[in-house]
Design a protein that fits this description.
- It contains seven helices and eight strands.
- The chain is globular and about 60 Å long.
- A six-stranded mixed sheet has the order 1-2-8-5-6-7. A two-stranded parallel sheet has the order 3-4.
- The chain has about 300 residues and is of the alpha/beta class.
- The chain is about 35% helix and about 15% strand.
- It binds pyridoxal-5'-phosphate.
- The site of pyridoxal-5'-phosphate (PLP) has 17 residues, from helix 5.
Length: about 300
C-alpha cells in the first residue's frame, strides 16, 4: 500500500457509495511506454458494480428534485428493456435487484431496446417514468460533476489525455466537458467498435446505430476504432498482468489508452493518459473465452 487512504467510512445509504472511485496506475500494462503514466478509474467500485451507477443515481435525484418523479411517491417497481441475448449474468443481476425484464429483439441490439421502450413509455405515459439515459442531461451531468472533477482532483495538471468508449456517450460527454474547462488543454479521445457487428458489450458503433441525443460530435478531439479481438485480448491481459478482471468495453478502453501512451512515449517522451474501467468481468463469463470467436 502506497498510502493510507481509509476505506472503512460510515455510510447512511448505499447511494453515498456512488462515485469517489479509485484511480489505479497500470504499471505493468504500461511497460511498453515507460515515460507515460496510464491510469484507470475503477468504476466497478460503485455499489452496482459499474459506471452506470453514477447516471442512474443522478437521473433519479434530478427527477425527484424537479418533480418529474413526484416527491412523496414511492418507486415500487423497475422494468428494464434489454435485448434477449444480453449475458445470463446481466439478466440474473437485474432480477436479483427485483427488476422485471422486458426483452427486445436480439437481432436489433440496444437500438431494438430503445425502440421498444419508446413505444411502451409512449403508450403508457401515466404508468411509467422513463428516465431515457440517451437523452437525459443528468447522464453526462453525473460525469461532469463526478468523474471529471474526481480525475482533476486526483491528477490536476498531470493529465494530458482522456480516452473512453461510447455507449450512451454520457461518460465521454460529461467527463470531457469538465476536463476541457481545465486551463491546460487535455485531449479527449472517444473509442468506438471498428465493426457494426461487434462483441464489445456496452459500446456502440455510432455510424450504424441510433445516435444518442446527448452526443455532441464536437466534444471528442478524435475517435479511435477498436476491434473486438483487441478489446477481449486486453481484458485477458489485465486479469493476468494487473490482477484486474474487467469487461470487454474496459479492455477496449485500455487497449486504446496503451496505443496513445506508446505514441506519446515515442514522440514526446512523456504524458499521462486516463481511461475508465466500466465494470468487472464476472458478468461476461458466458460466452466463455473459447467461444468468443463465435459470438459476433
Ligand atoms: C459495460 C459498459 N461499458 C461502457 C459503457 C458506455 O458508457 P456510456 O453509456 O457512459 O457511454 C456502458 C454503458 O452503457 C457499459 O454498460
Amino acid at each position: 500500500m502506497r498510502h493510507g487512504l481509509v476505506r472503512s467510512r460510515l455510510l447512511g445509504s448505499v447511494a453515498d457509495q456512488v462515485g469517489q472511485t479509485p484511480l489505479l496506475r497500470l504499471e505493468r500494462i504500461g511497460e511498453s511506454a515507460p515515460s507515460v503514466e496510464i491510469y484507470a478509474k475503477l468504476e466497478f467500485a460503485n455499489p452496482g458494480g459499474s459506471v452506470k451507477d453514477r447516471p442512474a443515481l443522478r437521473m433519479m435525484l434530478d427527477a425527484i428534485q424537479d418533480g418529474r418523479l413526484a416527491a412523496g411517491k414511492t418507486l415500487i417497481s423497475v422494468e428494464l428493456v434489454m435485448p434477449s441475448n444480453v449475458t445470463k449474468a446481466r439478466k440474473d443481476i437485474v432480477q436479483a435487484f427485483g427488476a422485471k425484464i422486458i426483452y427486445s429483439d436480439p437481432m436489433e441490439g440496444s437500438d431494438g431496446a430503445i425502440r421498444l421502450v419508446h413505444k411502451l413509455a409512449g403508450e403508457n405515459a401515466d404508468r411509467y417514468f422513463y428516465p431515457n439515459q440517451y437523452a437525459n442531461p443528468s447522464n453526462p451531468g453525473a460525469h461532469y460533476l463526478g468523474t471529471g472533477r474526481e480525475i482533476l482532483d486526483a491528477l490536476g495538471d498531470r493529465i494530458t489525455h482522456f480516452v473512453t468508449g461510447l455507449g450512451t456517450t454520457g461518460t465521454m460527454m460529461g467527463t470531457s466537458k469538465r476536463l476541457k474547462e481545465h486551463p491546460r488543454p487535455i485531449r479527449c479521445i472517444a473509442v468506438q467498435p471498428k465493426d457494426a457487428l461487434h462483441g464489445l458489450e456496452g459500446l456502440k458503433h455510432l455510424p450504424s446505430s441510433i445516435v444518442p441525443e446527448i452526443y455532441d460530435d464536437a466534444i471528442p478531439d478524435e475517435t479511435m476504432w477498436i476491434g473486438t479481438e483487441d478489446g477481449w485480448d486486453m481484458a485477458d491481459r489485465l486479469a493476468r498482468e494487473e490482477g484486474l478482471f474487467v469487461g470487454h468495453s474496459s479492455g477496449a478502453n485500455v487497449f486504446a489508452a496503451l496505443q496513445i501512451a506508446e505514441k506519446l512515449h515515442k514522440e514526446q517522451g512523456g504524458g499521462c493518459v486516463v481511461t475508465i474501467i466500466c465494470d468487472r468481468g464476472d458478468r461476461y463469463f458466458a460466452p466463455m473465452k473459447w467461444e468468443k470467436r463465435y459470438t459476433w
